[in-house]
Design goal:
By secondary structure, this protein is an all-beta fold. The protein has one domain: TolB, C-terminal domain (Neuraminidase). The protein has 1 helix and 28 strands. The strands form 7 sheets. Strands 2, 3, 4, 5 and 6 form a 5-stranded antiparallel β-sheet that branches. Strands 11-12-13-14-18 form a 5-stranded mixed β-sheet, with no helix packed on it. Strands 1-28-27-26 form a 4-stranded antiparallel β-sheet, with no helix packed on it.
Length: 407
């Protein structure tokens, strides 16, 4: 494995300011290598951050890499080098709101506004304390943040919460956030954890301690907030006119830890972590997404788990039995970069415990072509995601890998 521009630094707090306008991002100098053809996929180590990394992403049309660390920091890799100071620090070390006491808590997601170059706005998702509610000691939070007015590699120190969902346990927190091609912000939430709660199928907060926004993909209009809210409801959301919480887009999920959109087609690829029998890869075209029910907790994969299994559900495209060693699926992203033309249209995914690397392509007849790739790949991966046009993976020790084709 080759290491490019490796830098280890101490954690420093990000201090914001209140000045305008938004600064121009730095020009990232890149040597555009000629395309490499073939399907011999490798993962090359490109950087290392100080703690557990959960995601790499980038603003639109920006060559920098932004690394999300579970303990509350976002780091910037520019021209192959890890910058000394974090882009944003929401960790407990600086009295930030991110809760990482146990389980799967932490800073979990990052998404840049589609017009980030002019707005300077980005969004983060994380778990936080929920004081005064003994039944729900955590909250799943989405906050809006802004880049510094004077330094494009630093964010302002204060973010504004736009959504807070009470959560009863430290596991199954989802946390992936992405913008769709429609400009709306999508959030994946876990079912709440702690023994199969009723949340995934709930459309309203009707039963005691039922949270209808958990176990879902939510869809928010962050540019046109409704009165009294920090976001609006898209008019074509399936429950915008009633019958359920209007934020709900897709329901019936257990823990969609990592999911993404195919930026060319709008298909959504969701890795849903299983309970006892299956890890699921769900793929829905844009027309199939509004109001789709992925089955949990009535169904686990294609098998009835408990309850009303007469409920209509969308079956997963790929389900991996747990006896095969898959215990925590990590959905990735469809490759739409330019460096490796033969990877076009293939989605890459893995399992946190099993390891390895799989690739899948959605065919015109809605079937999935799947290959498990031979070879050795890094263990304990936490994400595979697009940044600066290419695919990068993170692991539980802070390593950042790029998916490449060996010549």
């Amino acid at each position: 494995m080759k290491v490019v521009g490796l830098a280890l630094v101490a954690s420093l707090s990000a201090c914001g300011d209140n000045q305008l306008p938004i600064p121009t991002p730095p020009v990232v100098e890149t040597d555009a290598p000629p395309p490499t053809f073939g399907m011999n996929v490798e993962m090359t180590l490109v950087a290392l951050v100080p703690s557990l990394a959960v995601l790499v992403t980038s603003p639109p049309n920006d060559g920098r890499l932004f690394v999300v660390e579970r303990y509350g920091q976002i780091r910037v890799i520019e021209n192959g080098l890890l910058l000394d100071e974090p882009f944003l620090d929401l960790s407990a070390d600086v009295n930030g709101p991110v809760l990482t006491d146990a389980g799967e808590l932490g800073l979990l997601g990052l998404a840049f506004h589609p017009q980030y170059a002019t707005t300077g706005v980005f969004f983060v998702s994380y778990t936080a304390h929920n004081s005064g509610d003994p039944l729900n000691e955590q909250r799943d939070v989405v906050s809006r943040c802004t880049v510094s007015a004077t330094d494009p590699n630093r964010a302002r120190g204060t973010c504004i919460e736009i959504l807070s969902i009470p959560d009863l346990a430290s596991n199954h927190n989802g946390g992936m956030i992405e913008f769709g091609a429609d400009g709306y912000l999508y959030l994946g939430t876990g079912d709440g954890g702690s023994g199969n709660p009723n949340n995934p199928q709930a459309l309203e907060d009707a039963l005691p301690n039922t949270r209808a926004l958990l176990g879902k993909i939510l869809r928010l209009d962050i540019d046109h907030p409704a009165p009294g809210l920090e976001y609006g409801i898209p008019l074509d959301n399936p429950y915008a006119a009633g019958g359920g919480r209007p934020e709900i887009w897709i329901r019936g999920l257990r823990n969609p830890w990592r999911w993404s959109f195919d930026r060319m087609t709008g298909d959504i690829w969701i890795g849903d972590v299983g309970q006892k029998q299956f890890e699921e890869l769900n793929v829905l075209r844009p027309s199939q997404q509004p109001g789709a029910n992925l089955g949990w907790k009535f169904w686990e994969g294609s098998l009835c788990y408990e309850g009303d299994c007469s409920t209509s559900q969308v079956l997963p495209k790929d389900e991996r039995p747990r006896f095969s060693g898959w215990y925590s699926i990590i959905a990735g992203q469809v490759y739409r970069g330019s460096r490796f033309p033969d990877l076009q249209g293939w989605h890459f995914y893995t399992d946190h415990y099993k390891g390895g690397l799989a690739m899948a392509r959605l065919e015109d007849d809605d079937t999935l072509t799947v290959f498990d790739l031979p070879g050795s790949y890094p263990a304990n991966l936490t994400s595979i995601h697009e940044a600066a046009g290419e695919l990068y993976a993170t692991d539980a020790t802070g390593k950042i890998f790029q998916l490449v084709v060996a010549p």
